[in-house]
Structure formats: structure tokens, C-alpha cells
Design goal:
Shape of chain B: globular
CATH class of the largest domain in chain B: Alpha Beta
Distance between the termini of chain A: 23 Å
CATH topology of the largest domain in chain B: Naphthalene 1,2-dioxygenase Alpha Subunit, Chain A, domain 1
Low-confidence stretches of chain B: 237-242
Low-confidence stretches of chain A: none
Mean pLDDT of chain B: 91
Shape of chain A: globular
Oligomer: heterodimer
Radius of gyration of chain A: 23 Å
Structural class of chain A: alpha+beta
Helix content of chain B: 25-40%
CATH superfamily of the largest domain in chain B: Naphthalene 1,2-dioxygenase Alpha Subunit, Chain A, domain 1
Number of helices of chain A: 13
Largest sheet of chain A: 10 strands, antiparallel
Number of domains of chain B: 2
Mean pLDDT of chain A: 91
Strand content of chain B: 15-25%
Helix content of chain A: 25-40%
Distance between the termini of chain B: 12 Å
Largest sheet of chain B: 9 strands, antiparallel
């Protein structure tokens, strides 16, 4: 195996192309887990998932199992999910509530902030062996910070603070959260989850990809593709992807890119506006909360989705949080969490679930198309016939966008993917 | 991996998580631990007749245990002398000769090449009698009371020296057989665990975990099954509201070779059944009536013979630990039958192991869950050490070459780690 020198990494990831090894080499994957997920601010969960003391959810940062918990003092903690004794994963449910976290193996019990509470049969430890040693507890993630309920953690003690790291990407979180009359969103209901036999970057790239829509989703996006109602107040509105002359409408939109691999895609165009009693109730509560002008601004979907590299996607249109968890070089777990706007009519939350079932469940009309594409990519990249994956579309046509503070790539530019690859090199130490 | 790197992985009271996660450590283990020590291969009763064979692996290398026509037991590398294919693909069976599926080369049960099709295609410069074209024997094979071990090392201390203080575990079990021999027959329980092999061998000298991991079975109302012929669904005593330090009273002995022996668990009384009386009568014929109680008194629960096999005395079985990858281990559980004991006891044993050690059982599944949780938990970077401090410095030498400590102490694991480090850093 070739040693992964920085020169090698720079050779593999170019401005306009990426070598297939980056998707199929386990050594590169291991290095990504250390240098990207092991250093970046990684989204862990939303505070609404742990409303009460003792509530927890389990997830991973890279391949490392972690817990997000609500401590008895109300604070939210992110802890390594690993018993201080023999290393067993302590919490094994996806979510739950417990006054303390107890390891199954030998019964060691931890407080919800990770402190070791009790060791059964504490005799027999040698004199001077300190069972109160913090290192025997569930170790906290090096850094934990949140923005409007979105909890991020970093395993790098020297990471810059989250707000600085997010930069203008806070606008993207605001765009979602400001649609609530109370200025808060909640993760609610269950989640949709699937495991893909493909590299995690295939999903991340797809979330900056406006080019695939008319093709990857043709069954839905073609002119007769009225398969479902998209949002509250719509009657089976068609996403205007292709115009009458056959050119993609998406050419009116584009992709924004910010530092650290963040990107957002422009909003889709629809036939027909949202209307009806539920919608009007919602509009009224927004106007009451923010006044007519801001309400109008807040209610308008400005971005279709936003990827906060490397693992969080905000689906603005569908009101979903999507989390990308790498499992192995050729395996990725994707979880979709519906989001509810606090203070909005309950019918809208039901519509969010209904739409998610149609677009993002295991037997849906949209995400399944993408999953199929990812698996075809992973399989195709085994071929040595061509070494390179191409990302040249729109190169040289990027421009600064003063309104959003990032770079903007018009039409179906692959700027977002190039931006991810720059961040990749940066995290890997090879920028 | 050099000695300095390896020494950094083991301290008296801890082992570095890398020892369980790093494929490079695993490769070194296969070369230096499983590649050098005596590894249990099978029991000679599994290959009772000439041509009987059983396949397994030593240090990831496939081998065949078989009985040659001269009555000797052989351990052969399971690899065709021609193109390297696995010759014997079945788990067990009987064959007059072993025939490779690829080009039909056939081998005697001592591994010598018996014949090859179209041999006239080879010119005089090719010596078809060259032993290297056969299935080569594993360098060393030795047997203790029917338990067959093999070593990939050309020389090593004798098997009896290697077994040392745990020979008596085998002696005691064999004494309990009215015919003076044990046998493995029937099938086995087999499962592949997504976890490092060391988690299983550590668990086999761990009396600290049962009260917690096996709580559903062991708590006061946990009478899920009868343990032995004649038991009335007896719980393991000690968990019924009294001190958990019951588990300490069982005791633990560890040996420098990395072996360990757990003391016996108290039982809920001697069975008094017609079958058990027949069994006692058969033992009396062999040992004399005065010695039957002594022979039936278990002095141990479980014996872990580092690194590859455990023998449980209470509910008789042999458990083999076969590493597959750094995070994958195959475990097989073979019931161990007492020759000359009533057939009903054999049936009870199988039924019992179905409850405790089958893929859908009450006990071993708890442990397997823990091994997999360890493998996942140790991925976290915040805490590099796995802890084994319990009872550190409190073990005392016994008079038979071992060190004794309380049952829940982690001295057996510490002995495994010292033996591991010695193998890994040996020249």
C-alpha cells in the first residue's frame, strides 16, 4: 500500500477531480476518521431530543460511539460511550432515559455527566487506586457547543469556537429555525434510517448536486412526475425542474459555498403557492410574532438544503435533519429526523412526516434514487479503467456573493463538491 | 512491531486499547502467540476411526486433524501441494484419502501424496515424491489424555510442561468418567463474534461479571433452567439478596503460562435420582466406593488454557477460541461426555448446553453481547486503557506453581497479559 504522504493526498484530490482511491481505500478512510471526523465540529444531535434530565441519544463521531445526555443540572453533555473499566459500550439503545448509565458487564454506574458513581464490590482494588479518577468515568468529548439547539462536538481540544467555525453558516440554521413562530425547532417522532453500501462522501457530494435532479430523479422530476404533494397548502405541486423547452429550471438556481466545506443549494420553483386554512393560521402566527415583512422573509424557502460538512444536512424544503455517519470505507449510515416548528399548527408537523415518508423512507420516491446512484458509484469505482472522478462542471464561473457571504456557482455548478474537497484537503493537513 | 512498542501496550493493571483494535498487533499475535504456543486442535475421540477428520485453524492457517490407518493422530496443513487450495472443505467426516477439488490430487491421511491425475504430464525433472508436494505435517503434535494440541514452532517445551498446573483440570474430568476417558460426539455450538479473541479468553477467568451480565438468570427469581440431572431448577446460590462477594469465595488461580482456573461454584445439593445412583455405582466400580465422593467433588468451575481453549468442569464442555481477524473470532462449544456414565446424563448435558451456550441461549449470548460492546466502545479515543486492577498485588502463591486470589479478582487476565507480552517480545 502506498504511504499516505501529504503529496500523495494532494495528488489524489485535485481542484477538478478526485482519485477513485479516495472512495475505496480503507487506509484513506482510516485517516479521514482521524483527521476529519476526529477534528471537525461534528453534529451530534438537537437539544430537543434530550428535553429532561437523564434523557440520552447515542450516535457516533467518526467511528467512535458517543452519548448526548441531559444532566440533572439541565446541561447537555457529549460523552464517549465507553466504560472506564473494560471499554464496553455502556449505552446501547438509540435513545432513552435513565437516572444513571450502567455498564452491563460488571455493573459500573455513571452519572449522566459521565462521572463514575459506583463500582460494585469496590474492595480488592490496590491501595492508592483512585476509583474517583475522572479517567475511569465516561470521558467528555473535548469540545461541546450548540447553536440554536443544534449540538456539535469536536474531539480536538484546540478547535476554534463553534460560532467562529460556522461563520455565515449560522444563517442557514437561522433560515430553518426562524420559520417557527416561537423561534425554535424540535426533533420529533421517529426517524428514517438506511445503511448504504457506499462511501460517506458520495452522500455529502449529492447534497451539493443540482445536476443530478432531472436524471437521478426523473420518475418524479419529469414533466408528468406529479407523484406527491410537497408541502402544506399545496395540491400536488410540480417541482419545476424542466421547463417547456426541456432545459432545467434549476439553471435559475445555483449552489453557494462557504469555508469548511459548507454549501447550500438554491430553492426549487413550484407551480402554485401554498394556501388554505392551515397555511393561513401559520402565516397569521408568524406575522404576529415577527411583523409582516420579517414573516414574509422568514417563510420564504431560500435554500433547498444546506450541508454543514462533514455530517449534517438541513433539508429546508422538507423540514428534515439528515445525519451522515461513516461506518466503513464502503458503508454509510444515513438518518433522517423530521423537524417540527414550535408554535406552528400541528397539521404542518404531520405533513412533514408524510412528505418524509414519500421522499426519504426506505421505500420512497426520491432518496432511494440517490442510494441506488451511490451504490452504483461505489461499485463502478472498483474499476481501474479510469482513475478519476470528475468535478469540473462550472469551474471558473464561481463568483463572490455579497448577500450570503460565500462563493456562488450558477446553474448546476459542481462548486459545492469542489468546496468539500478543498475542506477535505484542509482537514487532512494537505491544503 | 518492536519490543518497545509492545511493552507500551501492557502495564500491571491495564492493557492499551490498541491491543484489541490494531490489525498489526493481531498479525503479530498470529505469528508470535498462536504461531508458537501449543494450540488445542481437537479431542482424539473426534477422529476415532482411521480416515476420520476434523478441520480447524491455527493462527489463521487451516489444518486437518485426522486419524491415519496406523492408528496415529495427525495434524496436517490443509493446503494442496499443487496450487495451494484448501483440500478438506468439510468441518468433519471420514475419507480414505483427501482429494483436492481443483485438479484431483489425492493425499493419504498422513499427508503424503497418494496420486495425481495425468502424472505423465510431468517430466523427469519433477520429483513427485518430493514431500513438499504433500499436505505437510504441522511441526509438533502432542496429546494429553485425549486432548490434542499442535504447535507451529519446530521446538518448544513439552505439552505437559506447557499445561503445568492445569493438567489436573483434565485429570479430574477424566476421573469422573467410569470408563476412564471422555469423548466428544455429536455436534457443536458455533458462533462468530464481531470482537477480538482476547475478550472471550478474559471472560473465561472473570467472576466479577456474572452478577451483572447474567442478571436475568442469576438473580433470586432467575430460575430459568435446570443445571444438571437431578437439579430442581436450582438457582446459582449467592445472588439471593446476600452479598455479591459470594463470587469472591469461589477463588481464582493463575499460572505464568497465562492459564487460569476458577474455583467451584457452590451447588444446591447432590442430586438423588435413579440415574445419578447408577452413575455413582459405576464410579465406585472404578475408584472404590470410598473414593466416589472425592471424585465427584468439583474443585474448579472452569479452566482457561491460554490462548486457545477452555474446559468447563461443571457443565462439561470444551470451548475453542479461534481468532479470525482483529475484530472477529470463532467460538465453538463441544459437549464433553463421560464414557461409561448413563446415557441420560449425556442427553442432559446437551440439553443444558442448548440453554447456556447455543446461539439463542441464556448465558453465552450475554457474554457475546459484551464482547461486541467492548469492540465498539474501545473505538473511543478519550481513554486508551482497559483496566484490570482488581486484586492487584493481593494474589498469593499456592504450593503448585500458581497464584491464588479472590474470585472476582482480575489476576487471571493479568496472567494472560504477561504471557501475551512474553510471547510477543520473545526473540
Amino acid at each position: 500500500m502506498t504511504t499516505l504522504t501529504l503529496e500523495r493526498l494532494r495528488h489524489l484530490v485535485r481542484e477538478d477531480r478526485v482519485h477513485r482511491d479516495v472512495y475505496i481505500d480503507p487506509a484513506i478512510f482510516a485517516l479521514e476518521m482521524e483527521r476529519i471526523h476526529g477534528r471537525a465540529w461534528v453534529y451530534v444531535g438537537h437539544t430537543s431530543q434530550v428535553p429532561y434530565p437523564g434523557d440520552y441519544v447515542t450516535t457516533t463521531i467518526g467511528l467512535q460511539p458517543v452519548i448526548m445526555s441531559r444532566h440533572s443540572d439541565g446541561t447537555v453533555h457529549v460523552l464517549h460511550n465507553r466504560c472506564g473499566h473494560r471499554g464496553a459500550k455502556v449505552l446501547n439503545q438509540e435513545r432513552g432515559s435513565a437516572p444513571q448509565f450502567r455498564c452491563l458487564y460488571h455493573g459500573w454506574a455513571y452519572a449522566t455527566d459521565g462521572e463514575l458513581l459506583a463500582v460494585p464490590l469496590p474492595d480488592f482494588y490496590p491501595a492508592g487506586y483512585d476509583l474517583a479518577d475522572r479517567r475511569l468515568g465516561l470521558a467528555p468529548a473535548a469540545r461541546v457547543e450548540s447553536y440554536r439547539g443544534f449540538v456539535f462536538a469536536s474531539l480536538a481540544p484546540d478547535a476554534v469556537d463553534l460560532r467562529t467555525h460556522l461563520g455565515r453558516a449560522t444563517d442557514l440554521i437561522d433560515e430553518l429555525v426562524n420559520r417557527s413562530p416561537e423561534g425554535e425547532v424540535e426533533v420529533f417522532g421517529g426517524r428514517l434510517r438506511y445503511e448504504i453500501r457506499g462511501n460517506w462522501k458520495l452522500q455529502a457530494e449529492n447534497l451539493a448536486d443540482q445536476y443530478h435532479v432531472p436524471f437521478g430523479h426523473e420518475s418524479t422530476a419529469s414533466r408528468d412526475g406529479y407523484q406527491f404533494q410537497r408541502r402544506t397548502g399545496e395540491r400536488g405541486a410540480r417541482a419545476r425542474v424542466l421547463s417547456e423547452d426541456g432545459n432545467p429550471y434549476l439553471q435559475e438556481s445555483g449552489t453557494w459555498a462557504w469555508p469548511h466545506g459548507f454549501n447550500a443549494n438554491g430553492a426549487m420553483h413550484f407551480d402554485g403557492a401554498q394556501s388554505g386554512p392551515v397555511w393561513e393560521t401559520y402565516r397569521a402566527s408568524m406575522v404576529a410574532a415577527y411583523g409582516a415583512n420579517r414573516a414574509e422573509t422568514y417563510m420564504r424557502v431560500k435554500h433547498h438544503n444546506a450541508l454543514l460538512y462533514p455530517n449534517l444536512d438541513l433539508h429546508m424544503l422538507g423540514m428534515l435533519i439528515r445525519v451522515i455517519r461513516p461506518v466503513a470505507v464502503d458503508r454509510t449510515e444515513v438518518t433522517i429526523y423530521p423537524v417540527r416548528l414550535k408554535g406552528a399548527p400541528a397539521e404542518m408537523a404531520r405533513d412533514v412526516i408524510k412528505l418524509a415518508n414519500i421522499t426519504h423512507s426506505a421505500t420512497s420516491l426520491i432518496q432511494t434514487d440517490d442510494v441506488e446512484s451511490f451504490e452504483r458509484c461505489q461499485a463502478g469505482l472498483q474499476s481501474q479503467g479510469s482513475e478519476w472522478v470528475d468535478f469540473v462542471r462550472g469551474q471558473g464561473r464561481d463568483a463572490d456573493d455579497p448577500a450570503w457571504g460565500g462563493r456562488y456557482g450558477p446553474i448546476t455548478s459542481e462548486i459545492g463538491m469542489r468546496n468539500q474537497h478543498r475542506a477535505w484537503l484542509d482537514y487532512m493537513g494537505a491544503a | 512491531m518492536d519490543g518497545r512498542e509492545l511493552n507500551a501496550l501492557v502495564q500491571d493493571d491495564r492493557m492499551h486499547r490498541r491491543a484489541f483494535l490494531d490489525p498489526a498487533v493481531f498479525d503479530a499475535e498470529m505469528e508470535r502467540v498462536f504461531g508458537r504456543l501449543w494450540i488445542y486442535v481437537g479431542h482424539d475421540s473426534q477422529v476415532a476411526r482411521p480416515g476420520d477428520f476434523l478441520t480447524t485453524a491455527i493462527a489463521r492457517q487451516p489444518v486437518v486433524l485426522c486419524r491415519h490407518r496406523d492408528g496415529s493422530v495427525r495434524v496436517l496443513f490443509n493446503r494442496c501441494g499443487h496450487r495451494g487450495a484448501l483440500v478438506v472443505a468439510e468441518e468433519s467426516g471420514n475419507a480414505e484419502r483427501f482429494r483436492c477439488g481443483y485438479h484431483g490430487w489425492t493425499y493419504h491421511t498422513d499427508g503424503t501424496l497418494a496420486g495425481l491425475p495425468l502424472s505423465d504430464g510431468y517430466g523427469p525433472q519433477v520429483d513427485l515424491a518430493d514431500p513438499a508436494l504433500g499436505m505437510l505435517p504441522v511441526p509438533q503434535v502432542a496429546t494429553y489424555k485425549g486432548f490434542v494440541f499442535a504447535s507451529l514452532a519446530p521446538t518448544s517445551p513439552s505439552l505437559e510442561d506447557f499445561l503445568g498446573g492445569v493438567k489436573t483440570s483434565i485429570d479430574e474430568i477424566v476421573d469422573r468418567a467410569p470408563d476412564g476417558a471422555v469423548e466428544i460426539k455429536g455436534g457443536c455450538h458455533r458462533y462468530v463474534v464481531h470482537a477480538n479473541w482476547k475478550f472471550q479468553i478474559e471472560n473465561l477467568c472473570d467472576m466479577y461479571h456474572p452478577a451483572f451480565s447474567h442478571e436475568s438468570t442469576l438473580r433470586a427469581d432467575g430460575r430459568q433452567f435446570e443445571r444438571r440431572e437431578g437439579d430442581a431448577g436450582a438457582p446459582v446460590r449467592g445472588n439471593d439478596g446476600r452479598s455479591l462477594s459470594f463470587w469472591d469465595q469461589t477463588g481464582m488461580t493463575a499460572y505464568t503460562q497465562g492459564h487460569s482456573v476458577q474455583g467451584p461454584m457452590p451447588r444446591a445439593g447432590e442430586p438423588d435420582t435413579e440415574v445419578y445412583r447408577r452413575y455413582r455405582a459405576a464410579l465406585a466400580r472404578r475408584h472404590g466406593a470410598a473414593n466416589v465422593d472425592r471424585v465427584l467433588t468439583l474443585t474448579r468451575h472452569n479452566t482457561m488454557i491460554f490462548p486457545s481453549v477452555a474446559i468447563q468442569s461443571l457443565n462439561l464442555h470444551v470451548r475453542t477460541i479461534t481468532p479470525v481477524a482483529v475484530d472477529k473470532t470463532e467460538i465453538r462449544v463441544y459437549p464433553l461426555h463421560l464414557r461409561g456414565a448413563p446415557e441420560e446424563m449425556s442427553r442432559e448435558l446437551i440439553r443444558y448446553l442448548n440453554l447456556t451456550h447455543a446461539a439463542a441461549s441464556f448465558i453465552q449470548t450475554d457474554d457475546v453481547e459484551m464482547f461486541e460492546r467492548q469492540q465498539q466502545g474501545l473505538r473511543t479515543q478519550a481513554n486508551d486503557w482497559v483496566r484490570y486492577a482488581r486484586g492487584l498485588g493481593q494474589e498469593r502463591p499456592d504450593n503448585e506453581g500458581g497464584y491464588r486470589g479472590a474470585g472476582t479478582n482480575e489476576l487471571g487476565m493479568r496472567a494472560q497479559h504477561r504471557a501475551w507480552l512474553e510471547c510477543m517480545t520473545a526473540a
